[in-house]
Specification:
Layout: H1 2-50, E1 55-59, H2 70-73, E2 77-80, E3 95-99, H3 110-115, E4 120-125, H4 131-140, E5 146-150, E6 155-158, E7 166-170, H5 173-178, H6 180-186, E8 216-218, E9 229-232, E10 239-242, H7 246-255, E11 259-261, H8 274-282, E12 293-294, E13 309-318, H9 325-332, H10 335-357, H11 365-369, H12 372-378, H13 391-420, H14 431-435, E14 440-444, H15 445-455, E15 466-469, H16 472-480, E16 486-491, H17 492-501, E17 510-525, H18 535-547, H19 550-556, H20 558-564, H21 589-616
Parallel strand pairs: 1-2, 1-3, 3-4, 4-5, 8-11, 14-15, 14-16
Antiparallel strand pairs: 5-6, 6-7, 9-10, 12-17, 13-16, 13-17
Length: 619
């Protein structure tokens, strides 16, 4: 019994000793592992301090040093062991890319490339790989936020626009780990200055395009004023671009210390179709196009910037002609006013009949409808009064005189004003009014198919009201010369300059209709190539120009800028009719017709009276 108890105690002590040894061994292994990867782990934490990221993307197959750090990072992770993603990248989170070796990232998905273009990358350099080669490879793919670390612990960061395309930030990561607690407290990163090779706390990633050292920004204006046009600077002899869209690009280039590069074979004043510019953008031959494109024509913003300006897309319609003099009399005799006057005439007739004897003995239908005194009184003429009129009759006659003064004054003032300055005809307020008018809609064939057929119900009976042009430059020419035989579709931003130009006309030729529109709201953006590395800076520049009102200033001052640069002229395209200083018989046609009709009515009434007297024997 005692021997068994001693054996159990021996086994218990042995097990306790083995457990203690295992615990000490685990502590030692953990310390060894911590010493091996602590510097790399601190580097990733330092990168996250510069710009926080909540998703880790690892390119490369296992085993990799970054895979061993995942438990300690504790972040959502995407593993791309084959070097590319098969599905489009749809994450909206900020991602940090960890690349196992310089050749591990072989992304082929274009949508993923666009989403991860600005993401920060940390590449683990294999032995014998030079940082210069890695930076060149990434710069060719226009991915600039790249840092590298090798097995020894050297840290490198790629730099654009300098002779040596990288800098060395830390000699050894183990030294960085020894000061980890101090670094996490004292890190203050300046994103706009270059890093010092001997500093442990300068930014690993800097804004590469803050100073482009005169690098070109390729652009091309459509030369459709006033948004973008080319002119020759007389002081320098060089060609420059102007316009409220071009000014955005040139100011952005000045902000980044870049230069604006135009095509060598451009034609001064030669307008370029939107399709040609978009095609050059799709082929990456242009960085930023100096034109505007609606967002409804694209499925996404891959080839468009942040919306620069909003507008409507409506019709500019010729100002209606003035009413002919012969129509003025008909115009002032409004049916509603005429009806009110007839009702007043009948009321005054009844009151005059009743006020004579304060009864209805003298009432008759003829006396009510053709009351001589009431008719002459409303027309402002004199009429006979009884020898001793009652106070009721006097009061009614005063009302008739007051009504005659108001009526004759109103009609006389309207008649004189309209003859002095005839009003315009009714404006067109709907698409149906356009189809019933004498005007045709001048439109390019592409717009006729894309907008008119989709937004308006054109049929074989009214399609003749649309004038389809295959030459879009002919459409621009007709619109810019204010040919009032047609109605033109135009954006509101373009109408600003056309309205400003009409201030130099003797009278306006067109007006912008807010009632007849193909699109009441459009977002207009600048086309730019898909993988533009400074896209984010350009969009921030757009927001800054909008916030300070500079974009609106450029837009409203666009026509005056064209005049100052002698790109446009203050030419009067209006053709106002010379006012006539005298009236002709043809101008009184409607009045004479009304006069003859009234005489004919009087003759008919006279004949009826004669017949009535003969039938009833009244002498």
């Amino acid at each position: 019994m005692a021997a068994g108890l001693a054996a159990m105690q021996f086994y218990f002590v042995l097990i306790l000793f083995a457990s203690l040894c295992h615990w000490l061994l685990c502590i030692e292994l953990d310390e060894l592992d911590k010493d091996e990867h602590s510097g790399l782990l601190h580097l990733i934490r330092r990168i996250r301090l510069e710009r926080d990221s909540d998703t880790i993307v690892i390119y490369g197959s296992e085993p990799c040093v970054f895979h061993e750090l995942l438990p300690q990072l504790g972040l959502p992770t995407v593993l791309l062991s084959q070097g590319s993603s098969w599905e489009d990248w749809s994450f909206s989170s900020e991602s940090l890319l960890l690349i196992c070796n310089s050749n591990a990232e072989q992304e082929q998905n274009r949508r993923t490339l666009l989403k991860l273009q600005q993401a920060r990358r940390l590449v683990y350099l294999e032995a014998g790989k030079k940082p210069t080669e890695v930076c060149e490879a990434y710069f060719e793919r226009e991915q600039v936020n790249v840092a590298m670390v090798d097995a020894v612990g050297n840290l490198y960061s790629c730099r654009c626009f300098q002779q040596k395309n990288y800098v060395q930030l830390a000699l050894n990561l183990s030294d960085s780990y020894q000061t980890e607690s101090t670094a996490l407290v004292n890190l203050n990163f300046d994103f706009d200055k270059e890093s010092d090779s001997n500093s442990h706390y300068d930014s690993i990633y800097v804004e590469q395009f803050a100073n482009m050292q005169g690098s070109p920004i390729r652009t091309e204006p459509d030369q459709v004023g006033p948004r973008a046009f080319i002119y020759k600077n007389p002081s320098t002899g060089e060609y420059e671009i102007k316009g409220f869209v071009s000014n955005l690009i040139t100011s952005f280039a000045e902000r980044l210390n870049a230069t604006v590069k135009l095509r060598d074979d451009f034609g001064l004043g030669q307008k370029i179709h939107m399709k040609n510019i978009i095609q050059r953008v799709l082929l990456d031959q242009l960085d930023i196009a100096a034109t505007l494109k609606s967002t409804v024509d694209f499925e996404n913003f891959d080839y468009l910037s942040y919306p620069y300006i909003h507008s409507s897309y409506c019709f500019m319609i010729p100002v209606p002609p003035r009413v002919d003099f012969k129509e003025i009399y008909t115009l002032i005799v409004h049916p509603l006013v005429t009806g009110v006057l007839i009702v007043l005439f009948l009321i005054f007739s009844l009151l005059l009949i009743y006020s004579q004897e304060l009864n209805w003995r003298r009432f008759s239908l003829i006396e009510m409808l053709l009351n001589d005194r009431c008719m002459r009184g409303l027309l402002g003429h004199a009429f006979p009064m009884p020898a001793h009129p009652s106070r009721y009759l006097k009061g009614i006659c005063m009302l008739v005189c007051f009504a005659s003064i108001m009526t004759t004054t109103m009609y006389e003032s309207c008649l004189q004003a309209y003859f002095t300055h005839p009003p315009h005809e009714m404006i067109l307020r709907s698409f149906e009014d356009i189809l019933t008018s004498r005007y045709k809609i001048a439109v390019e064939r592409g717009e006729a198919i894309g907008y008119l057929l989709r937004n308006f119900s054109l049929t074989t009976t009214n399609v003749h009201h649309v004038h389809v042009l295959d030459d879009w430059q002919e459409l621009i020419r007709l619109r810019e010369t204010f040919n009032d035989s047609f109605i033109y579709p135009v954006t509101e931003v373009r109408w600003f300059s056309l309205k400003e130009q009409q201030k130099y006309f003797r009278e306006p030729v067109f007006y912008y209709s807010q009632d007849v529109c193909m699109k009441h709201f459009l977002l207009l953006s600048l086309p730019l190539r898909r993988h533009l590395p400074y896209r984010q800076l350009f969009e921030q520049h757009i927001l800054a120009m909008q916030e300070f009102g500079i974009s609106q200033f450029w837009l409203r001052n666009s026509f005056n800028e064209m005049i100052r640069l002698k790109v446009a002229l203050r030419k009067d395209y209006s053709h106002p009719e010379e006012p006539e200083d005298q009236l002709y018989v043809r101008d009184l046609t409607n009045i004479l017709i009304f006069y003859l009709a009234a005489h004919l009515l009087a003759c008919i009434c006279f004949v009826l009276e004669l017949c009535w007297a003969r039938i009833f024997g009244i002498k």
